[in-house]
Design a protein that fits this description.
Layout (H helix, E strand, L loop, with lengths): L1 H20 L18 E3 L1 H9 L3 H10 L7 E7 L3 E6 L1 H10 L14 E5 L11 H19 L3 E8 L4 H13 L4 H6 L4 H18 L5 H12 L3 H22 L7 E4 H6 L2 H11 L4 E2 L9 E3 L15 E4 L7 H12 L9 E4 L4 E4 L15 E5 L5 H13 L3 H5 L1 E4 L4 E4 H6 L15 E2 L11 H19 L5 H22 L6 E3 L1 H5 L6 H20 L8 H5 L8 H11 L1 H11 L3 H18 L10 H25 L8
Parallel strand pairs: 4-5, 4-12, 5-6, 6-11, 12-13, 14-16
Antiparallel strand pairs: 1-3, 2-3, 7-8, 8-9, 10-11, 14-15
Helix pairs in contact: 2-3, 4-25, 5-23, 6-8, 6-9, 6-10, 9-10, 12-13, 13-14, 17-18, 20-24, 20-25, 22-24, 22-25, 23-24, 24-25
Length: 645
């Protein structure tokens, strides 16, 4: 009801302005700060004053004189220095919202459009850590956001199984541990934890003797060729680590449509195909002298985007013939848009319930790739490489696709001092343990919080909190509820801050039942569910039909109850803006605003013990609108809605 009224009023104002002043003007929409000032504000007269050389209030009066109000709008009034403020019909508006909650409205899907979202992309060389979780949660929420808005979305997880990180773990197994493929396969779980320590050990081992890094290069060659003992160990490492990663993400409700393996990009000659195109167009050339002698290089010094860089040229193929990350990613990006002229082979990974690239593949499989838009969720440190990927598309004259290659960048995750101390990374004597300090992590040095350890800690702390409040709960129910709260705490924490901010994860803040947290949203929903349960027990209506709400008198609505309904009606606008701007914190903030408004009304407007039927009905209608809206936003955010807390 909110969006329909806003769009129709905007259309009529635009038409009226064109008729009066022969000016094309797209009216800006604002929300008045208080409900007594109206529900929708148009500052168009203020914006037109300079153009038509009249007082804004005079312009407002002239516009108002010829406007027919659309359905659902009670009045349109002149306010302040020249605003046009609309007041909506409250009972019929609330009834329309209950009949069709904002996020369940008809979608605006464009026929055939498809977005590929690539996220997670954890190197399959060790356990996932807390920083990876921000990537995965943001990618998962983005996919849910676009699907809610009617987009066709395909989620891919890129498996870098031929890269340096996997090579280093293979070096650790072969050259430090002296293990063969069978011995690596036989290592017990958690395999990713074992590799976590081994990867850090390899880094220190290299530092002791720089010549040892030659083993990395040898291993990379074998991984890329797919032949030899090291390649076999690399395949075992990647498979076992990916299996662990998928289980970790499944704990947070995160899944994928397709796993794409870097080894298949090489094995199916994807890069060779892209390389030939780049050479043919002159986008890359072979350096014959200088520090990049023998390398295939993409010259970028003439590009404005790379102007001023000390070394703007990017190596695509090293002098030893190995391919850089960005070279493989250009080929992958071409395939995502359906521009490569070839496809992967696929099989369905039964144990994980998803599709993966695989050789040999099966004949029958879904159609993957060939997207209209591609969004790569990768941390902000990869901005330079993502620009080069776009530059590769530009060099091949795929300008539209380069424009639609979107880097969804985000900042890193640190630990608050208190949380770092609880996890054993800081002690009381450490100067970094001062309040306000945070601890940055390094996978290479082995300093970091494994994702599963973090989830375990959150579940343990949530379990203790619930036990203190509900001692009658059984162990099984307690475990399930603790998991739901831990998931909400972690997911909301990763989304609530703007992506351009480094976030310092803090246990207490994430798990707070009263702060800006996922559990706070859950608590508000449980509180609303309890109201309805008690109404059922008392034999009173716990959910109203839209016709009943539409028949309520306008006078029965207080401004604060109506404000809650309007907040519920505006959720689609927030989700739409989040999808357009990739600022997903807008969804989290709107969810939080809803919960805060509802909790503020909870004691002022009791429902169960209200004897006036009209007052009880209007309060229940507002609660119902709140519950529908927050339940839908929680689904977009991936926050479970528990039955009790």
């Amino acid at each position: 009801m909110w969006s329909a009224a806003k769009h129709e009023l905007s259309r009529r104002l635009e038409s009226r302005i064109r008729t009066l002043y022969e000016v094309d003007h797209d009216p800006v929409v604002e929300i008045p700060p208080r409900r007594d000032l109206g529900d929708i504000a148009f500052p168009a007269p203020l914006h037109l004053a300079r153009v038509v050389k009249r007082n804004p209030r005079q312009i407002a009066a002239e516009i108002l004189e010829g406007i027919d109000l659309p359905a659902g709008v009670r009045s349109l009034e002149i306010a302040g220095a020249g605003y046009l403020n609309a007041f909506l019909q409250r009972s019929s508006g609330a009834a329309a919202l209950l009949a069709r909650p904002a996020l369940r409205d008809a979608t605006d899907e464009v026929e055939g459009t498809k977005t590929v979202i690539e996220h997670t992309n954890i190197n399959p060389n060790k356990a996932a850590h807390i920083g990876h979780l921000r990537n995965s949660v943001l990618g998962d929420v983005l996919a849910a956001t676009l699907r809610t808005l009617g987009r066709r979305v395909e989620v891919q997880n890129y498996i870098d199984d031929t890269g340096v990180q996997v090579a280093d773990v293979v070096v650790g197994f072969v050259d430090i541990r002296g293990l063969d493929a069978a011995a690596v396969e036989a290592l017990p779980e958690p395999f990713d934890y074992y590799c976590w320590d081994l990867y850090s050990e390899v880094g220190r081992w290299y530092e002791e003797d720089e010549e040892r890094r030659g083993l990395r290069r040898k291993t990379l060659h074998e991984l890329e060729s797919g032949e030899g003992e090291r390649a076999e160990i690399g395949r075992i490492v990647a498979r076992r680590i990916v299996t662990r990663h998928l289980k970790t993400m499944a704990r947070l409700g995160i899944g994928y449509d397709l796993l794409t393996h870097e080894s298949d990009i090489l094995g199916l000659d994807f890069f060779r195909n892209a390389f030939d195109k780049l050479v043919a167009t002159g986008a890359i050339h072979l350096e014959e002298a200088g520090k990049n002698e023998g390398c295939w290089v993409m010259p970028l010094s003439e590009s404005e985007e790379f102007a001023g860089l000390e070394d703007p040229d990017k190596v695509i193929v090293r002098s030893d013939g190995t391919v850089t990350y960005v070279g493989k990613d250009i080929a992958y990006q071409l395939w995502k848009f359906g521009l490569l002229g070839r496809d992967f082979e696929y099989r369905f990974w039964e144990e994980q319930g998803l599709w993966t690239t695989h050789r040999p593949g099966v004949d029958e499989h879904p159609a993957f790739g060939a997207a209209d838009d591609v969004i790569n969720v990768i941390d902000i440190r990869q901005s330079y490489l993502q620009k080069i990927v776009r530059a590769g598309l530009e060099a091949l004259d795929h300008h539209a696709e380069a424009e639609r290659s979107i880097h969804f960048a985000y900042e890193m995750v640190a630990l608050s001092a208190d949380t770092a101390r609880q996890l054993g990374y800081l002690d009381e004597a450490d100067e970094d343990a001062d309040e306000g300090k945070s601890l940055e992590m390094s996978g290479r040095k082995g300093v970091g919080v494994k994702a599963d350890d973090l989830i375990d800690q959150l579940e343990a702390k949530a379990r203790q909190e619930i036990e203190d409040r509900n001692r009658e709960l059984g162990s099984e129910e307690l475990t399930a509820l603790a998991h739901q709260i831990a998931v909400a705490a972690l997911r909301f924490f990763m989304v609530k801050a703007s992506t351009n901010r480094v976030i310092a994860f803090d246990f207490a803040e994430a798990l707070s039942f009263e702060g800006e947290s996922g559990p706070y949203l859950q608590y508000a929903l449980v509180r609303a569910a309890n109201i309805r349960r008690k109404l059922d027990e008392a034999g009173l209506a716990s959910r109203l039909e839209p016709d009943t709400v539409a028949a309520l008198s306008e006078e029965v609505w207080s401004d604060d109850l109506w404000d809650l309904v309007l907040c519920a009606a505006q959720v689609r606008d927030s989700v739409d803006k989040a999808g357009r701007t990739l600022e997903l914190s807008l969804i989290a903030r709107h969810a939080l605003d809803l919960a805060q408004k509802f909790n503020a009304l909870y004691h002022r407007h009791p429902i169960l013990h209200e004897s006036d039927e009209a007052l009880r009905a209007v309060r229940l209608a507002a609660t119902q609108a709140f519950c529908d809206a927050l339940t839908d936003l929680a689904a977009v955010l991936g926050i479970p809605t528990p039955d009790r807390m």
